[in-house]
Design a protein that fits this description.
- This protein has helices spanning about 5-15, 30-45, 75-80, 90-105, 115-120, 125, 145-155, 170-185, 200-210, 230; strands at about 65, 85-90, 110-115, 130-135, 155-170, 215-225, 240, 250-255.
- By secondary structure, it is α/β, with parallel strands linked by helices.
- It has one domain: Vaccinia Virus protein VP39 (Rossmann fold, 3-Layer(aba) Sandwich), CATH 3.40.50.150.
- An 8-stranded mixed beta sheet has the order 3-2-1-4-5-8-6-7.
- β2, α4 and β3 (about 110-115) form a beta-alpha-beta unit.
- α2 packs parallel to α3.
- The radius of gyration is 17 Å and the shape is globular.
Length: about 260
């Protein structure tokens, strides 16, 4: 096990694994964010698809790696867009849930209980520079060593491929709303889900990724929608894309 993995956080997520597909449970925020995440992914995927090769399913023919896939919320949506999806996670319980749910959904997804470094070591000849699209959604704020994590991602993505991150900004509003408000006021995330010291700003992520030839140049914010009813219920509806990067944001770019 490499030191990119925070064992305490993995244990916490593992203990909640039976709740991955409960849309009103501890992972409800991921379900509510999933359509906005897919919209951002689709916008950027167009950059690496030649017009003459566009098909009915946008990601058809693309090899996609979903890092920190959890119970498969995003992996299943990527598969439905036509991608050949590999989902990896360090939580054995989460991977079991993901496999079981994909079978029920009749979706063929290659799930592995493994880290990025272990994947490279185990299948070095087969996975290096293999993936057209590498996604680390709501993951980088949980790793212990971003340097190794970013290096692994760069090795897994092919030259000219697309890398996408979504995470929480290391800003006043990111910490206040993305952690304390979400975990302690709205209770849409279990208390202790995030360590604000691991949050990263778009500027820092851009600089760190560039060291590994990942050129991040497309950014968007994710903002929750509120209604009168959701405010009364101390909740929110889904997410929309916004130019405001202060709380949650997505970053995408080409691997050189």
């Amino acid at each position: 096990m490499t030191n990119t993995v925070d064992k305490i956080e993995i244990e916490q997520f593992s203990s909640l694994s039976n709740k991955w597909w409960d849309t009103s449970g501890p992972f409800s925020a991921l379900h509510k964010m999933s359509n906005a995440r897919i919209k951002f992914i689709k916008q950027n995927a167009n950059r690496i698809i030649k017009k003459e090769k566009r098909k009915m399913y946008l990601l058809e023919g693309m090899k996609c790696l979903d890092i920190g896939c959890g119970g498969g919320i995003l992996s299943e949506k990527l598969k439905r867009l036509g991608a050949s999806v590999t989902g990896i996670d360090a939580s054995e319980n989460a991977i079991k849930v993901a496999k079981d749910h994909s079978l029920k959904s009749r979706l063929q997804i290659d799930y592995k209980c493994i880290t990025t470094s272990e994947l490279l070591e185990l299948e070095k000849k087969n996975v290096k520079n293999k993936f057209d699209l590498v996604i680390a959604s709501e993951v980088i704020e949980h790793v212990n060593n971003r340097e190794i994590f970013l290096s692994d991602i760069a090795k897994l993505c092919r030259a000219g491929g697309l890398v996408i991150f979504t995470t929480i900004n290391n800003s006043f509003w990111g910490v206040l709303l993305g952690k304390y408000f979400a975990e302690n006021i709205l209770n849409v995330l279990p208390a202790g889900t995030h360590d604000e010291k691991k949050f990263i700003s778009p500027e820092t992520l851009t600089i760190e990724a560039e060291k590994h030839n990942i050129m991040l140049d497309s950014f968007t914010g994710f903002a929750p929608r509120f209604s009168f009813e959701s405010i009364i219920n101390r909740n929110f509806e889904d997410f929309k894309l916004t130019s405001n990067l202060e709380i949650n944001y997505g970053a995408a770019g080409i691997k050189l």
